[in-house]
């Protein structure tokens, strides 16, 4: 059975995010219209950002899956990082809009009308977002898709803010302190502003060709050492990630008397092992005969 029959693929998940965002936006805007709460307004406005971000993710995923071409020989994988940066920027803009609405309502408090149906609709939207956020984060990590993971983390923040909004609105109604409603909206804006900064910071690291983390680097080194029978040493190992693809480059020192065919066989064995463990790996190996190799390496080299 192929993977596509077992799991949702990246495009299907991205399109699913658009449909979920539309449903959540409808529920939250209806809840706001029924209650006249600026807190629920801030929640609905964030859902509008979620919808725009979900559309951006669909476009980014479609672009990232385009094959390499003459102008993009390393592929289009980094398009997903651009989507995550755009999502971060939209979150910041939404936070500014919420700050403005909350400030106006703080100095001119609105009369709250809180029917139970409005609160239930907003709660239902939060549950829907929570379930889909868990799906996106889990599947995004499985598929090594930064756009899906970023979208999932954004939705998770939306869930937390929705819970806070509901609690605050109920507390404002119970105490009669209606100024608590816009104050809570300001806290929601601050929270999503922090989320936007985190998304932008994480995406910029990918755009800057950041290396894989120490745990994954150790895993790559172990795979190379376990599959390099016949070689002498590997050195100058470099890694970088671009979307779901990990680029792995290193020099492999082999005995000078080894034939080109045998050296190529060793490279194939290492490459196949790396591809099996990291399905989206792009591996480049530079062969060096022992008598032409650089001086012995002590920093990060792997002696077999």
Order of helices and strands: HHHHHHHHEEHEE
Integer average pLDDT: 79
Distance between the termini: 38 Å
Sheet having the most strands: 4 strands, mixed
Provide the domain count.
2
Shape verdict: elongated
Radius of gyration: 25 Å
How many β-strand runs? 4
Name the CATH architecture of the largest domain: Up-down Bundle
The helix count comes to 9
CATH topology of the largest domain: Alpha-lytic protease prodomain-like
Q: What is the CATH superfamily classification of the largest domain?
A: Cation efflux protein transmembrane domain
Strand content: 5-15%
Strand order of the largest sheet: 3-2-1-4
**Uncertain segments of ≥5 residues (pLDDT<50)?**
1-7
CATH class of the largest domain: Mainly Alpha
Secondary structure category: alpha+beta
Helical content stands at 55-70%
Family: Belongs to the cation diffusion facilitator (CDF) transporter (TC 2.A.4) family.
Organism: Cohaesibacter celericrescens
Pfam family, one: Cation_efflux
GO cellular component, one term: plasma membrane
